[in-house]
Amino acid sequence: MHSISDLEKRYKKPKVVDAKSGDNVRVHQKIVEGNKERVQIFQGLVIRVDRKNSHTARITVRKVTSGVGVEKSFLINSPSILKIEVTKRSKVRRNYLSYMRERAGKSSRLTGIEFDKDAVNAVHDDVAEAEEAKLHEDVAKAAEDDAAKKANEEAKEEAKAQEAIEAHNKVSEDKS
Fold first, then answer.
1. According to CATH, what is the number of the domain 2-124?
2. Where in the chain are the domains?
3. Model confidence pLDDT, tens digit, residues 70-115
4. Angle at 85 between CA 82 and CA 87, to 5 degrees
5. 1-5, 17-21, 68-72: which has the minimum mean pLDDT?
């Protein structure tokens, strides 16, 4: 039993945001497409929290996009989840808010409650923050490399144009 708990502790993040049902959250997720990486933000209402203190803790987030309800489940301790921010906290008395699926418009509003946004979101995962900073640095480096390559190509084009103008001037001088 010790080995299982040790294994779970190894894969569990040291600190995560305490997201509850009824919270509006922004989930920053790392997306890998081919050899590129980017951060995608999914913002919506937490309608379910599963296995809260386990290494397989999961939240289900729902949002309505263009009139279509979209639900996405996130494993909180996954390395692809960089950050979870609680933007609004609402008063609910259930863990699973399945009734929100049938609601639209004003009936889908939840009563907000006051909370200390800074204290709730003050969870710093150094590994995730370092990885996010590395992603930003990689994107900035790639943009800088592209700009340098473009400037080099423009300089070559300018040199060719200048050479053509000089050749044209030389030919016109020889004719006269």
1. 2.30.30.790
2. 2-124, 125-176
3. 888 998 888 888 888 888 888 888 888 888 778 777 787 777 777 7
4. 160
5. 1-5
